[in-house]
Amino acid sequence: MTGARVFGGVLLALGVVAFVATLGVGDGWQASGPRLAPAVSAAALVVLALAFLVRPGEKLAAHVTEAGERTHWPTPALLVALLVGYALALDLLGYALATAIFYWLATWLLGSRSPVRDVAIAVALGVVTSFVFSEWLNVQLPTGPWGL
């Protein structure tokens, strides 16, 4: 129970620090400004940390221990390595292609048994997301050597 409260205190401190840091961002609280979303997230973290401090839950430690025993640890480690590879491939391959490859490999790693469907979704996800960001939101993502 004490460890849970310490964890709640750490979350509370992080939430307060994050909220104070957002006060120095931007000029105002407009919905399209850079301050509102981080401030809302930080406030939500503070509220959740307070709830965790008030009622940390008696069964939490048992649940964490049980979940840790059943976890196949190479899978999350490979996902982290895949995410690092994705970040490194963004400039080299471009957003659309790197995202398609990342999605396809992540679904395979997580046990999907429909590779054709996964490739179709991966290509659509990469191309549509890239189009939406560049054309509708006017945010230029890395295009890679092929201009995709």
TrEMBL record:
Transmembrane residue ranges: 6-25, 37-57, 77-106, 118-139
Keywords: Membrane, Transmembrane, Transmembrane helix
Residues spanning the signal sequence: none
Domain DUF1468 positions: 6-142
UniProt-recorded name of the protein: Tripartite tricarboxylate transporter TctB family protein
Organism of derivation: Solirubrobacter deserti
